[in-house]
Amino acid sequence: MNPKRLFGVLGILPMLVICQSGPNSPGWGLSKTPAPAELYVSPRGSDEAPGTRADAPLRSLDVAISRAGAGTTVHLLPGTYRDSLVTRRGGSASAPLVIKGHDGAILDGSNLPVKKGSNQNQGLVELRHPYVRLEGLVVTQAPNTGILLAASHLTVKACEVSYAQRHAISTETGHQPHGDSPVLRDITLTENTIHDCVLKGAGFGQAISLIADGFVISRNRVYENRTEGIDLWLGASHGEVRENEVYQNGAPGIYVDGGSYLRIHRNRVYGNAKGGIGISSEDQRYRTHDVWVYNNLIYDHPDSSGCFVWDPDIGAERVLFAHNTLVGNKTSFNFAGRGNSVEVANNLGLALSGTDTADWSVGSQISIHHNAWIESLRSFLDAPKKDFRLKQMAPGIDGGNMLPDLRDDRGNVFPLDTDFANQQRPLGKAPDLGAYETN
Prior knowledge:
By secondary structure, the protein is mainly beta. Helix content is 2%, strand content 39%.
């Protein structure tokens, strides 16, 4: 949306100079009265109430959101809300707008008069302004997307998203390097529970679908969605995916398609229908490069690969798989397509097929070194309980090579000196293979 321009009245009146604003600026839509510090909403409230006290809440989400601004916390009290939630303005870096659901606050879109699955850029929640934090809300039965991200400086924390017809959480698709809107920056998705989404199935989205430059996806549980669990695509860059549990999804657990300078580490990824962690570049406008996958536990993909690189045309470049533990997958690593450059180092694998690395690629540079492909679960402390720490004297102890620090194009340095449990590496004469460093 183009910025609005307001002009002062000519003549004897002084000219008013008014700064331009837009829907992604903190001041967009501000009223003359200061925004209240606290607003309370309840399905049993009244829009005639002041809404500034828990015992006199508003009833309508829209009324509360229209009054909120920088520094406001909107409290959604327990109950079921049957409307959409669309921001009217944002906050600021020092005074974000917070929308907080209390235990039992549910946003239910099952009765909205919206055609199901028709528009991925329509959310039951739409965060369209910057410096907004959404916390603790249950978002369910979205006719299209559950939570839509359409501004920079957004946080979604401790929410539950379920039974969305399309994405659970998604970037509005115009926000991409080759799109018609600016790329989003500073996005945090943390401690959320996401399940049973993308009910329309393949071609209608992913559970988490993110396009952003500068983001963190951490400590989420993403499970039993019909397609990918976490999908980074169309120019996603300078991001981190860590400490998530991603399982039993209908496509790869974590998938990169056209991303760069991405760290995927300390995740537990298992039981997904089409593999654990996949790297590709399906859109020729977006080159996949500098993707680092390390310190992950990836297991129980009996019909597919723990990790794979697949690129049909232009190749995924400078992909690193390091210090991952891969158990019970058909193959540990699989490479296909053309023009890939991949390093596989310091991993520990036990593949069901007996083939840990399968390379079907052409014109590619695949460097595989300092790995151990084992044949027995006896090396682990308690494999039936998915405790894949190594026993003393197991294959892979002190068997690795200390890898150089990771470096992005902005001067940031990321050492590989800790393991899955955030324990120092190495503890012996050399790093252990796999995700854990053994005492």
